[in-house]
Automatic annotation (TrEMBL):
<dbReference type="InterPro" id="IPR024294">
    <property type="entry name" value="DUF3810"/>
</dbReference>
<feature type="transmembrane region" description="Helical">
    <location>
        <begin position="52"/>
        <end position="74"/>
    </location>
</feature>
<protein>
    <recommendedName>
        <fullName>DUF3810 domain-containing protein</fullName>
    </recommendedName>
</protein>
<feature type="transmembrane region" description="Helical">
    <location>
        <begin position="86"/>
        <end position="108"/>
    </location>
</feature>
<feature type="transmembrane region" description="Helical">
    <location>
        <begin position="5"/>
        <end position="23"/>
    </location>
</feature>
<keyword id="KW-0812">Transmembrane</keyword>
<keyword id="KW-0472">Membrane</keyword>
<dbReference type="Pfam" id="PF12725">
    <property type="entry name" value="DUF3810"/>
</dbReference>
<keyword id="KW-1133">Transmembrane helix</keyword>
């Protein structure tokens, strides 16, 4: 009986691969029947089961998975009772099951309609469009910065606890009057990661556990980064699996909020991506634009950079490689590079709003 189940699961794996391969050609169907329908219900069930628990159940689940894999490896090396064939069958069945659960609970969202299609905006923009967008962002950011500090040279300090920022970001999602994004966030399910220290070394601010739909954030990052990080992870929770789309949602939700600190995090977040993009197109111009920013704003950027530098090392490079491959496997062929696609969304969304 046990062997039959294992065999069925193992055979199921290539069938799943084929199914996903075909599904990539039908983003409309995924959008309608999965992302806007099945996923909405299944994620509500996940939130109902895990949101009231103060720590991350998903992190425990990951720890258990690591233990199971280690146990399997030890058995493989010692191999006394089971044949190699049985052990490989077990491994295949395990991978097949995890792969199945990953997709049913969250992963099919990778194959939904691209956000620019849902929003009805283009992905094309030229340097003049980008320049106009950046100038507007710089003006807004400088004005807001002056309201938050007494001198241009001071960085903005975030005197909030994690929980306070968490609640502000949750409220931002609840109160948003943006009808373009189809946001329906009802249950707060955001937790500090049990793995925050290793995450810091790996260069990660947070992640969503697809099996439990809990959003975890790295509680060691500077508080100034909490709003956009949390908003990004909630974006993932809502079914925007792709990095660039979660970044876009995080920018819009925080930039449009009434809280000034959230807006400051959001504006500087969008600005950073836009300036990086301008740097690729025209490094001299990007330098001129940066010099327009209040020095205190650069200090907030510096604070974040210092944080990551304190933890940088070989682990970060290895993780970047692994995560880059993960993104490629999951329908984001440009890998980590695709992060700049967020600028295409921001510039064109802004253009649509202002005309
Ligand atoms: Zn992400």
């Amino acid at each position: 009986m046990r062997n039959t189940i294992l065999k069925l699961l193992a055979i199921f794996f290539p069938i799943q691969l084929l199914f996903i391969y075909i599904l990539k050609g039908f983003p409309d169907l995924v959008e309608t029947y999965y992302s806007q329908s099945f996923f909405v219900y299944i994620s509500q069930l996940q939130h109902f089961l895990t949101s009231w628990i103060p720590f991350s159940i998903g992190d425990l689940f990951y720890s258990a998975m690591v233990l199971i894999i280690l146990g399997w490896l030890i058995k493989l090396i010692r191999r006394k009772t089971k044949s190699l064939k049985t052990m490989l069958l077990e491994a295949f069945a395990f991978v097949s099951l995890i792969y199945f659960l990953f997709h049913v609970f969250w992963g099919f969202n990778y194959y939904r309609l691209p956000l620019h299609d849902s929003l009805g905006i283009s992905t094309e923009y030229n340097k003049a469009d980008l320049l106009e967008y950046i100038c507007d962002l710089i003006q807004q950011t400088n004005t807001l910065h002056s309201q938050l500090v007494s001198e241009d040279s001071l960085k903005v300090d975030y005197d909030f606890t994690q929980k306070e920022v968490q609640d502000l970001v949750f409220k931002a999602y609840q109160n948003t009057d943006n009808t373009d994004l189809k946001i329906s966030y009802r249950i707060e399910n955001l937790k500090p990661s049990l793995f925050s220290l290793p995450l810091s070394y790996a260069g990660f601010s947070g992640y969503v556990n697809p099996f439990t739909n809990e959003a975890q954030y790295n509680y060691k990052i500077p508080t100034y980064k909490f709003p956009t990080t949390m908003a990004h992870e909630i974006g993932h929770q809502l079914g925007f699996s792709k990095e660039n789309e979660a970044n876009f949602i995080a920018s819009i939700i925080t930039m449009e909020d009434s809280n000034k600190f959230l807006r400051y995090s959001g504006l500087t977040f969008a600005l950073k991506y836009s300036l990086n993009d301008m740097y690729k197109k025209d490094p001299v111009l990007s330098g001129v634009l940066i010099s327009d920013l209040h020095p205190g704003i650069l200090k907030n950027y510096q604070e974040v950079q210092n944080f990551w530098e304190a933890y940088s090392g070989p682990v970060e490079l290895i993780m970047e490689k692994i995560y880059g491959n993960y993104l490629k496997v999951n329908n984001q062929p440009q890998g980590i590079e695709s992060y700049s696609y967020v600028v295409a969304l921001l510039v064109n969304y802004y253009k649509q709003q202002s005309h």
